[in-house]
């Protein structure tokens, strides 16, 4: 961790203005970013009175983005696409008692009841489009009808997020800046990669989360709690954010400023939250299926790391174990090696992770570390239960679970990137943290799209989005480093970010080389060489070639983990020392 002097660069000194840069520097700013941001907000009036639900400029962006997403219909689809098609079939064709018991497909229903009913609702329309979509035994059905239907549902349900972001603009003090933030979230590369290509419904569920956060901003805390309870019953992984909600609502809604319990408010909040869970799980409780449902929601048979190591603290620990295994004895260290861990963490298999040199990590260890970090931030939230403090603590709770959780998926980085975007324009310190975390987080999602057709899409779209977003926000909060230590830290962070283009070039060359060598040894030279997929590595063997094939994923994970870990330290320091 940085020294006190060097870390001062993480936050602006108290009383320093947000933009203490000279007028000469302001004139040298990239003009294209200003032009783009001004065009994006040209239709937004100064006063929000009596304005329509969606303004002409916002409507144009919605139409253009929708057309772009329609063009992605034929693109690569992950196994998640068949997962959701199977859930449409289960909820439509089977009685409620069979929803969490059916094993016709390996992709069994493992989301909470509200999402199951969400699938049931969509299945009513799916059956009208093509009745074969909702046949349970019609596995791996990929006709154009099901592709178009499921892709369209992602676009439509994402409007929940879109309208929440519009509401953020309407009540913002600085509507121009909030418009840029809202647009950056609606057009975020993570939603394009994970939802519109890979296939999931994150835009819909993050929309519910954003509505809940918005209610906190507007002072409607009871509705904020209701919406978050609903969200938990759509996707239980959002429970990592629950401690922040619990502390904030208890402290700011259920207690008086003097700390006295306001019993009517406490009872009202408890009733609202418990009623949501009763509606969700009640029917399954009456069927005596609560144990069965929970066995699906919480499978504890998986290992520490996912197939492709999520770029968190455990990715760095796992990489360290690989380094010690390979070079420890060469440098004279007397290391005790667990033979069962020699191949465990080098192949990217979904299963138990066993270290060869470092002591093994158990679920209880990850739980204890996650809770410990969350508690640090929750104490601060208890003392300062404001809106901005809540959003930062919420982000850090999700960040802590991502950094130290058990079997974290790479897609879980979105739980960090979305709320962090809300904080991006608080000041230069928040903005720099946002830039590092966002670039590392988005790059960490690239291995999800491994086919040649999608490579230009993910690269060009992410680069264009990053340039427009970062330079449009930078001009509003940038502060020039004031000391030599701050300049050094700034240079190190910029050097790290400049490493991503080099990393991408290296990975492209390596992918071609390893695939070319594999094909050459089989006396078949390929005409096109797709990079290694995350799905493919899950079923990989233990050969030397396979271990080499996993190297690009490992390098990507470790390099992204460095940035995400540093951003976590930065944000934690900012919250604890400046709020």
In short:
The chain has 579 residues and is mainly alpha-helical. Helices cover 63% and strands 0% of the residues.
Tags for this model:
single chain; 579 residues; mainly alpha; disordered N terminus
Structural features, described:
This protein is mainly alpha-helical and 579 residues long. 63% of the residues lie in helices and 0% in strands. The protein contains 24 helices and no strands. It has helices spanning 4-7, 23-27, 31-40, 56-70, 79-93, 113-129, 144-157, 159-170, 175-186, 189-199, 202-217, 221-232, 242-252, 263-286, 290-297, 313-327, 363-383, 387-404, 414-422, 428-444, 455-477, 484-521, 534-538, 544-578. α12 runs parallel beside α14 (263-286) and α16 (313-327) crosses α24 (544-578). The longest helix has 38 residues, at 484-521.
Count of individual helical segments: 24
- Rg from alpha-carbon coordinates: 24 Å
Q: Structural class, judged by helices and strands?
A: mainly alpha
Write down how many β-strands occur, each being a DSSP E stretch of 2 or more residues.
Answer: 0
Helix content: 55-70%
- Give the CA-based shape: globular
Share of residues in strands: under 5%
Assembly annotation = single chain
Largest sheet: none
Instruction: Let me know the average pLDDT.
Output: 86
Order of helices and strands: HHHHHHHHHHHHHHHHHHHHHHHH
Distance between the termini: 20 Å
Low-confidence parts lasting 5 or more residues at pLDDT below 50? 1-48, 346-350, 525-529, 535-543
């Amino acid at each position: 961790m940085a020294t006190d002097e060097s870390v001062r660069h993480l936050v602006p000194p108290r009383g320093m203005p947000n933009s203490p840069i000279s007028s000469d520097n302001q004139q040298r700013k990239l003009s294209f970013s200003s032009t783009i941001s001004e065009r994006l907000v040209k239709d937004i009036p100064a006063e929000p009175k009596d304005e329509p639900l969606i303004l002409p400029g916002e409507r144009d962006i919605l139409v253009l983005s929708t057309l772009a997403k329609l063009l992605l219909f034929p693109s690569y689809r992950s196994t998640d696409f068949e997962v959701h098609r199977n859930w449409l079939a289960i909820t439509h064709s089977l009685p409620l008692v069979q929803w969490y018991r059916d094993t016709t497909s390996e992709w069994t229903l493992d989301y909470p009841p509200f999402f199951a009913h969400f699938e049931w609702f969509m299945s009513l329309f799916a059956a009208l489009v093509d009745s074969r979509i909702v046949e349970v035994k019609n596995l791996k059905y990929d006709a154009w009808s099901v592709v178009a239907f499921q892709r369209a549902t992602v676009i439509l349900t994402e409007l929940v997020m879109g309208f929440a972001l519009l509401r953020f603009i309407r009540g913002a003090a600085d509507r121009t800046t909030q418009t840029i933030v809202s647009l950056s979230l609606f057009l975020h590369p993570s939603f394009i990669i994970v939802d519109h290509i890979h296939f999931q419904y994150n835009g819909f569920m993050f929309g519910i989360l954003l509505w809940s956060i918005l209610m906190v901003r507007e002072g409607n805390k009871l509705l904020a709690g209701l919406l978050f309870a609903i969200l938990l019953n759509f996707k239980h992984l959002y429970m990592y954010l629950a401690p922040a909600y619990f502390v904030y609502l208890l402290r700011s809604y259920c207690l008086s400023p003097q700390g006295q319990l306001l019993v009517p408010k406490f009872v009202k909040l408890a009733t609202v939250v418990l009623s949501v869970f009763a509606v969700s799980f009640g029917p399954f409780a009456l069927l005596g299926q609560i144990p069965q449902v929970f066995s699906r929601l919480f499978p504890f048979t998986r290992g520490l790391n996912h197939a492709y190591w999520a770029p968190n603290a455990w990715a760095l620990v796992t990489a360290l174990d690989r380094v010690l295994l390979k070079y420890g004895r060469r440098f004279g260290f007397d290391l005790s090696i667990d033979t069962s861990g020699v191949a465990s963490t080098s192949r990217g298999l979904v299963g138990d992770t066993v270290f060869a040199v470092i002591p093994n990590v158990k679920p209880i260890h990850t739980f204890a570390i996650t809770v410990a970090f969350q508690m640090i931030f929750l104490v601060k939230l208890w003392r300062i239960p404001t809106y901005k403090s809540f959003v930062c603590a919420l982000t850090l709770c999700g960040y802590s679970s991502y950094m130290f959780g058990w079997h974290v998926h790479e897609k879980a980085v979105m739980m960090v990137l979305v709320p962090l975007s809300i904080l991006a324009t608080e000041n230069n310190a928040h903005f720099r943290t946002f830039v590092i975390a966002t670039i590392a987080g988005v790059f960490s999602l690239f291995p999800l799209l491994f086919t040649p057709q999608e490579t230009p899409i993910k690269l060009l779209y992410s680069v264009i989005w990053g340039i427009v977003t970062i330079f449009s926000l930078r001009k509003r909060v940038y502060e020039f480093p004031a000391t030599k230590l701050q300049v050094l830290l700034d240079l190190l962070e910029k050097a790290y970010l400049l490493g991503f283009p080099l990393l991408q070039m290296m990975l492209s060359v390596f992918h071609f080389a390893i695939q070319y060598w594999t094909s050459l040894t089989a006396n078949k030279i390929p005409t096109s060489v797709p990079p290694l997929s995350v799905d493919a590595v899950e079923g990989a063997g233990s050969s030397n070639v396979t271990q080499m094939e996993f190297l690009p994923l490992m390098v990507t994970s470790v390099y992204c983990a460095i940035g995400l870990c540093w951003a976590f330290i930065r944000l934690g320091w900012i919250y604890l020392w400046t709020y």
